Automatic annotation (TrEMBL), chains A, B:
Gene3D superfamilies: Aldolase class I (3.20.20.70), nicotinate phosphoribosyltransferase (3.20.140.10). The keyword Protease does not apply. This is Nicotinate phosphoribosyltransferase. Pfam families: NAPRTase_N.
Length: 438, 438
């Protein structure tokens, strides 16, 4: 992150700053604290979740600085008092952050991020941490089900137009981590190196006097390997025209409406009749993981997914929360804390987390215990990796987009077979709390 | 918008640029075109939608420029050829844009935005236009139902942590347009002037040795008018402590868990017993429009809404599309065009739109016709206002956040009573196509 990256400090709830003000006044601001990010449950019926956004979060934390512009705004709008403004002006996160490596699967109560610092330095990151992890994890969790349902067939992310323009860039990144092959989003290509792809819309066909002219124009510009959209008027007639123009080298045809399964079969038969065995069939049109699975038996080569991907396929936010689980008392002793609110209890204490694996390397449980990771953990895989130490980012390599993509593939492969069922059910492995937890 | 605003040009689907390349090659790029943004349907059961994002869109279009950085990226990744790069390097939208004024209600097939320019200049805006309008309109449409259900009681937007960090800022803006009183999001305060508010979380109580100490610290810092969160341990005991500390001037107490209706009644009775008739009750905890309506009979003074607001209460995207509806032919004559794809037909031609009002000023229909708005439109209210003319933004005043908020209130008030029912049903007024449409 360069020094000129825009400040992320005001992407924050008002009450984080008023809490800092009140804690500075009471003196409790300097108590050492442990904050934990976790989800009490997965979206209904889901078997696992996917942690995503960690790499973006590390950049965002480095840019979490209150420059003169931010301080002036807060002073003018009297959000907090002068003492607090002074604290904010010199704010720089100086604690430690641990977390599940990006791309890792998670389950209910998995401590996906652990922030250790004094109260004032830690509480203030709550909104930004949750915005990034909740959004990106929701998209990655949905995306993983789609790529799982698609098997060896590539999935193309094309949902930018169905979500906020910046959320679209993050969604393309999260989808790639969860196994999507490409995105339509050019900024995701520039910012994160996600491969981009795309061909033409109905507008391009309608722009020309007829379909033949449009196809010829596209093939001339983009080559015979391009994908021609064949459902603007009549599909069979469009396929014949496409083959006449591009010949056997025609890359692909795209179907974007109607009954995709029966149309794909008809188009496959027609293409084969015309000698275009190598021309692929791309399907798009409100696909989700269920529609993808429903097309598994059809002659489909690529899936384009938009709306369902960027909206988390029914679960647009991951429901993660950021909770104080431990803090020092006046004597400096660390004390576990937890609220008792009805239906929203939390579990106090700094936790460790392990993925328990059987002899075949298959995940059997998410094990959560209090304190340090046990030294002798056998086949269990420790899940918390260092991300920030004394305010310095140390975990960036673990959450590059390629590392996260590889990790997700490995983490998902480790789950029991039930994880890959689309129908609603319980989490693929149980979350076990060790005896030392309250 | 200052010259230094970041470029929005790559917040765009790859295929918009390859279509420009192919159309430049075929010569069709210079055909004059009309693109229309509309939704084929409202989210299931909704009675009306709310147009939002127009003001943001005008800024984004002004920043839609391909500087050296964008061109270099596109050249390096060979997205398009050199002729197209030259076109992009000098790109500046030079056409006209009309649209529903921000805050206006819309219905199926309402032409909420009309873009008139040559093909290349118009098609390229598709992704950005849809990202902004689909996201912001989805949030505003949900928000309007919430403020309608809340009646005179203020709604507080507090969903930043449940959505992408930049989407959160846009969501706060959209919610304010649809009648929310305040937001928790500080950046929405700075960027758009939305009033911000907030007090404390459970972490603040848990940080202190006991609830009394936490409440005292908060009241000392933020004054007796603050809102104390009373459900960390035992609600009744917390209310007593709060009143002991702040006295009759205590501003409000907040309930964030459990059965909010019965708890609000108990807390109201207790506050009154203690002499705190003026202390208000704020409720939060996964509220949506139905929960708000369910609390109407309870002694609740303010509603805080998070997740449901930023995720569009079940409809996180508005489903608007950007379609070519007319273009010139070789003779320069404007021709209506429409695709015939199964279940995705569109209606060709440049449209006008009117809200038909009866003698009492109540909306009776959304009237859509072909061509110019009829001169004698009686009580009908024309809906398309000029936003951009010859590339210059002319509609900014119509979509300031305050103008949009006032317009939404007026537009919603004009709808028939059925519009305000929360249960699923048909759109509040029918969409009528005039006879001149195909």
């Amino acid at each position: 992150m360069t020094a000129s990256a825009p400040s992320t400090a005001l992407l924050t709830d008002h009450y984080e700053l008023t809490m800092v003000e009140a804690a500075l006044r009471s003196g409790a601001a300097s108590r050492e604290c442990v904050f934990e990010v976790f989800a009490r449950r997965l979206p209904e019926g889901r078997r696992y979740g996917v942690v995503a956004g960690t790499g973006r979060l590390l950049d965002a934390i480095e840019s979490f600085r209150f420059s003169d512009q931010e301080i002036d705004h807060l002073r003018r709008t009297t959000v907090v008092d002068d003492t607090t403004l002074e604290f904010l002006a010199s704010y720089r996160f100086q604690g430690d952050i641990w977390g599940y490596a990006e791309g890792e699967c998670y389950f209910p109560y998995s401590p996906v991020l652990v922030v250790e610092s004094d109260f004032a330095h830690g509480v203030i990151l709550e909104t930004l941490v949750l915005s990034i992890l909740n959004h990106d994890s929701a998209v990655a969790s949905a995306a993983s089900r789609m790529t799982s349902a698609a098997g060896d067939r590539p999935c193309i992310e094309m949902g930018s137009r169905r979500t906020h323009e910046e959320a679209a860039v993050a969604a393309a990144r999260a989808a790639y981590i969860a196994g999507f092959a490409t995105t339509s989003n050019l900024e995701a290509g520039r910012r994160y190196g996600v491969p981009t792809a795309g061909t033409a819309a109905h507008a391009f066909t309608l722009l020309h006097d007829d379909e033949r002219e449009a196809f010829a124009a596209q093939v001339e510009a983009l080559g015979k390997g391009t994908t021609l959209l064949v459902d603007t008027y009549d599909v069979a007639s469009a396929v014949r025209t496409a083959v006449e123009i591009a010949g056997p080298q025609l890359g692909a045809v795209r179907l974007d409406s109607g009954d995709l399964l029966s149309q794909a079969r008809e188009v496959r038969a027609l293409l084969n009749d015309l000698g275009n065995q190598d021309t692929r069939i791309v399907v798009t049109s409100d696909l989700d993981e269920y529609a993808i699975a429903g097309l598994a038996a059809g002659p489909v080569d690529l899936y384009g997914v938009g709306t369902s991907l960027v909206t988390g396929s029914g679960a647009p936010t991951a429901g993660m929360v950021y909770k104080l689980v431990a803090r020092t008392d006046d004597s400096g002793t660390m004390v576990s804390v937890a609220k008792k609110s009805k239906d929203k209890q939390s579990v106090g204490g700094r936790k460790y987390a392990l993925r328990r694996l059987n002899a075949k390397g298959c995940a059997e449980a998410e094990v959560i215990g209090l304190g340090e990771t046990p030294a002798d953990d056998g086949d269990d895989r420790p899940l918390l990796v260092p991300l920030v130490r004394d305010g310095e980012v140390v975990g960036r390599e673990s959450c590059t987009i390629e590392a996260a993509r590889a990790r997700h593939e490995a983490s998902r492969a480790e789950l029991p077979a039930a994880a890959h069922r689309l129908q609603r059910g319980e989490p693929a492995v149980p979350t076990l709390f060790e005896d030392n937890l309250p």
